[in-house]
Design a protein that fits this description.
The complex is a heterodimer.
Chain A: H1 2-18, H2 31-40, E1 42-47, H3 51-64, E2 69-74, H4 77-89, E3 97-100, H5 103-108, E4 139-147, E5 171-174, H6 180-193, H7 197-204, E6 206-209, H8 212-221, E7 226-230, H9 231-239, E8 244-247, E9 253-257, E10 259-262, H10 269-280, H11 282-292, E11 315-316, H12 320-325, H13 327-338
Parallel strand pairs in A: 1-2, 1-3, 5-6, 9-11
Antiparallel strand pairs in A: 3-10, 4-7, 4-8, 4-9
Helix pairs in contact in A: 1-11, 2-10, 3-11
Chain B: H1 2-7, H2 23-50, H3 56-59, H4 69-76, H5 78-111, H6 117-124, H7 132-143, H8 149-157, H9 168-192, H10 197-204, H11 209-220, H12 222-237, H13 241-247, H14 255-264, H15 270-295, H16 318-346, H17 367-374, H18 376-409, H19 415-423, H20 430-441, H21 452-462, H22 464-477, H23 480-488, H24 493-522, H25 527-530, H26 538-547, H27 551-586
Classes of the chains: A alpha/beta, B mainly alpha.
């Protein structure tokens, strides 16, 4: 299995890294669009993703389109939404493109975005879209990570995380109410792994963290030994040689498709369009999978992360209606079960 | 000009010429207009938010639906009660410790012959420049019960005791250590300006040095002690970084971490956060009122017309004891966390299996620094931060001098309102005040939004109380007879300020402008809403690194910031030494 996935990774790397000569520009947009975008020469991206990650994306985009400068404003999810709403109301929205992990919040702002579809729109999973204006430029997936120096018998599935041998806060978790990504995971746990999954897990004693970043850091330092983490948070650390490893569990990988869109008030609509086209293209997605540890919402992924066997591993996308409807009551129950004071 | 001239002429004084009729009201009116723009208007937005469900910019004032729901929710929520009591315990304990440390230090540095005082004075201010988030991260690295470096060392030595900074006592210790410089700044400048003949009189009357300290010295600088402890308490109440890094692993929630949760929630509950912020302001208002009650009707003037030369107390052999105390403090507060940050910044990963692994040179590299400086935003943010810091210190310093002088040295009507307005922002947590500024200023015509100026103005407003209070202490100590002497000699208002007040208050002015500069450089909460891609600042970039889960880069960037600040501190220390000499000559 490992050999096969290694081969898949190698192919992905080849796709993502080798094959982007300058002539390939036109696959991301017509000559007219490219000329207009280059004339604009810049765009501003508002993102709730990690700044460093998005900088890598921008750097890669600039390898293909060096004449378009991408400026970035980054803020945590809820704060970014407040800022967008306020700027828009004052007629001063600075963003050309917005990249946000919470599809529910973005759907509320759908009126601020212009009609847009990438050239490969039909290649995307319909369940990853919440509005025809908003596209999953980024898709993240949940993995189980562990510290290789501390865990002798690593977990192989989500159900393994209930084992008494991992008791007494060896497992760390991001709190349920931290945002849309964690809500996706705990929804998966309850709907797929069983109604009593939370209860059984809480009983063995779990260390709680406010968000994924400090948890990934705690895992590498050895504060906790095992942690469900978004794969991209731990992937770059593993590549750099951290004492950690991550697996995708056979019961399913909950994925979080982002909602990205081009604002109606965009001052650089052509550059924004070209940037989105590139992000959503096979090449853009392959780069994010291979270099950043993302997953993709493309029906046929151009690459797979290390350890991902497409025959065995299924992605799990939350039903969007339930995603919104169940949220507050289930999170309240999660808080009670894990003893977290909201 | 005319306005300024009239301002400083206290109505009660019979010697001075009659105040010009329109000068004082015009001056007070101008100050009130500035403060209304900087403080009251954003604050009204906050109250508007707390009392309704709407965003005043998005929904407009027309959509105002008054509702006490948020207040009632907040008051009835037992988690808020717990966060409230945790905050009082952590900040109360922290303040007591900060007063003990800060007072001891200012006495050692200013009034004794302890060796290497200049070095001690400089080094003991370093914690002030460390962003709270960095302090929290550093003490997590040192004092985590599982992987803390201190515990790794204890294990290696064979001692069973383990530190646990992920606890209430850990929070109190870190708060106390890091906010002692606030108390120090206030009390040191008060002690420096105090006439030692008062102490000498006490000693001549037979009191021991110890009795003199507690019956003469400390009571005389009571306003400075009170102002310093009040400020450090209130600043601690508003700190997010330390409780986030040290409280969260132990599930200890305080008001700021609670507010952060509310703003990070999907959808963000800013209106509820505003309600919590208003509660915080009520607590602060009570504290400020209590302080004024204690101080009212008492004179604390210790700088009079008589010339004096501060004479340090000769401690004899005990001066090595005080020197030892200072060294221990500096080691614990400066050396240990800096070492932790250096280890974190230079180690590829912070997994340290045992004490020997700490010395494995293969684990160290410049990789985090390289990656920080590879980031084009790093240099941009440093440049922007310096610009904002200088603008804030200059504009804020001038405004605070004007306010401090008007409030403390004149009798003009309206000065109480000015004092109140200038004190109001003290308790509003940065995260909430940031959104208040955004709501208030984004709609203004002109190109303010998106510039460095909007950040500088937000910082001037946010730190107005800190600066004004720091300056007021200096003003309170200058006896009126000095100004009166100048007036009798025919000096005008501005001339008196320039030749008498400014030179005497110069150490305080430099100290408060330095404080403002440092606070502006560290400020995150209000930056987060007001920065744009061209005006990004270091605090925002630091949060990006922290939120990216990379303690190595966070530590590397923190060290860069600390070194920059240390250089700037060196310059201002040199300036203030110059100023102190100037004021000694003037006195």
């Amino acid at each position: 299995m490992y050999r096969r996935t290694m081969t898949a990774t190698a192919i992905g790397l080849a796709l993502g890294l080798v094959g982007l000569p300058a002539v390939a520009q036109t696959q991301f947009g017509s000559k007219e669009l490219i000329a207009a975008a280059e004339k604009e020469g810049q765009l501003t991206l508002y993102t709730a993703d990690f700044a460093e990650t998005q900088q890598e994306v921008i750097k890669e985009f600039n390898k293909v389109f060096p004449k378009i400068k991408v400026a970035m404003v980054r803020a945590p999810g809820g704060q970014l939404i407040t800022r967008i709403k306020t700027e828009a109301a004052a007629g001063k929205l600075g963003a050309d493109v917005v990249n946000h992990s919470d599809r529910g919040l973005m759907l509320d702002l759908a009126d601020l975005f212009q009609d847009y579809a990438p050239p490969n729109a039909a290649d995307y999973r319909p369940d990853a879209l919440v509005s025809p204006k908003l596209w999953p430029g980024v898709t993240l997936g949940w993995a189980i990570a562990y510290n290789t120096q501390l865990v002798k018998n690593p977990p192989k599935s989500w159900m393994d995380l209930l084992k008494p041998e991992y008791k007494d806060k060896q497992i760390g978790q991001v709190i349920g109410p931290s945002g849309g990504t964690t809500w996706t995971r705990i929804m998966f746990e309850r709907q797929v792994l069983g109604e009593d999954y939370w209860k059984k897990q809480a009983e063995i004693g779990i260390a709680l963290y406010p968000s994924g970043a400090p948890l990934s850091d705690a895992l590498v330092r050895g504060e906790v030994s095992i942690a469900p983490l978004l794969y991209n948070i731990i992937y770059t650390k593993i590549v750099d040689g951290a004492p950690a490893e991550a697996i995708f569990a056979p019961e399913g990988v909950p994925i979080v498709p982002y909602a990205d869109g081009i604002t109606k008030t965009s001052k650089n609509p052509n550059a924004a369009k070209l940037f989105m086209n590139w992000r959503l293209s096979k090449e853009g997605q392959a780069f994010m999978i291979n270099k950043l540890g993302n997953i993709t919402s493309l029906k046929e992924p151009p690459a797979y992360p290390k350890g991902w066997d497409p025959k065995k591993i299924k992605v799990w996308v939350p039903n969007f209606e339930q995603f919104s409807k169940l949220r507050s009551t289930w999170i309240e129950e999660w808080n009670k079960t894990y003893g977290y004071r909201q | 000009m005319t306005a300024t001239s009239a301002t400083a002429l206290p109505a009660s004084d019979e010697i001075r010429p009659a105040p010009r009729r329109w000068g004082a009201p015009l001056w007070v009116g101008a100050l009130l207009i500035v403060l209304t723009f900087l403080v009251l208007y954003p604050l009204l937005m906050l109250v508007f938010g707390a009392l309704s469900d709407s965003n005043p910019v998005v929904d407009g004032f027309g959509a105002f639906r008054p509702s006490m729901k948020h207040f009632l929710d907040v008051l009835g929520n037992e988690n808020v009660h717990l966060a409230f009591f945790n905050a009082l315990a952590a900040c109360g304990g922290g303040t007591i410790l900060a007063v003990a440390i800060g007072l001891a230090f200012s006495w050692i540095v200013v009034r004794t012959d302890t060796p290497f005082k200049g070095f001690i004075a400089g080094a003991s201010m370093i914690p002030l420049f460390v962003p709270p988030l960095v302090a929290g991260v550093a003490w997590g690295i040192l004092g985590s019960p599982k992987t803390g470096l201190l515990n790794t060392m204890l294990k290696w030595v064979g001692i069973d005791f383990r530190f646990d900074f992920y606890s209430m006592s850990g929070l109190i210790l870190v708060f106390g250590m890091y906010y002692a410089p606030y108390v120090y700044m206030f009390t040191a400048s008060a002690l420096r300006n105090m006439d030692p003949s008062l102490e000498e009189a006490s000693e001549v009357s037979g009191a021991s040095a110890f009795t003199t300290l507690f019956t003469v010295t400390f009571p005389l600088i009571a306003p400075a002690i009170l102002a310093g402890s009040l400020l450090s308490f209130v600043v601690m109440l508003g700190i997010y970084g330390v409780p986030a890094a040290l409280g969260a692993p132990a599930n200890i929630s305080v008001l700021t971490t609670y507010i952060f949760k509310l703003t990070a929630w999907s959808p963000p509950l800013y209106n509820t956060a505003a309600a919590v912020a208003i509660l915080l302001m009520v607590v602060t208002a009570i504290l400020v009122w209590a302080q004024q009650r204690v101080l009212s009707g008492k004179s604390f003037a210790t700088v009079a017309g008589k010339a004096f030369r501060p004479r340090p107390l000769k401690l004899g052999r005990w001066r090595w004891f005080t020197f030892g105390l200072a060294l221990i403090y500096i080691f614990v507060v400066v050396v240990l966390p800096t070492l932790a940050l250096i280890i974190a910044a230079f180690r590829k990963f912070l997994f340290i299996k045992d004490f020997d692994a700490l010395f494995d040179s293969r684990a160290y590299s410049w990789v985090h620094f390289n990656s920080v400086f590879d980031n084009p935003l790093t240099m941009l943010s440093i440049w922007n931060t310096m610009k904002v810091g200088v603008l804030t210190a200059l504009v804020g310093g001038v405004l605070a001098f004007a306010i401090g002088y008007t409030v403390n040295r004149t009798q003009v009507s309206g000065r109480r309102s000015i004092d109140l307005l200038a004190t109001l922002p003290v308790a509003i947590p940065g995260l909430v005040v940031g959104v208040a500024y955004l709501w208030a200023w984004i709609g203004l015509p002109g190109g303010l939004y998106g510039t460095i100026w909007i950040l500088a103005l937000a910082f001037v407003a946010r730190f107005m109380p800190d600066t004004v209070k720091a300056l007021s202490t200096s003003f309170m100590q200058i006896h009126k007879e000095l100004e009166e002497a100048a007036w009798i000699c025919g000096r005008g208002m501005l001339g008196t300020i320039r030749t008498i007040v400014l030179p005497l208050a110069r150490p305080g002015v430099v100290a408060s402008m330095t404080l403002l500069f440092v606070l502006a450089i560290r400020e995150l909460g209000s930056s987060l809403f007001l920065y744009t891609s061209n005006t990004t600042v270091m605090a925002v970039l630091l949060l990006d690194y922290y939120e990216g889960g990379n303690v190595g880069k966070t530590a590397a960037f923190s060290l860069v910031q600390t070194v920059l600040l240390a250089v700037l501190l060196g310059i201002t220390t040199w300036l203030s030494r110059d100023a102190a000499q100037g004021s000694a000559k003037a006195g």
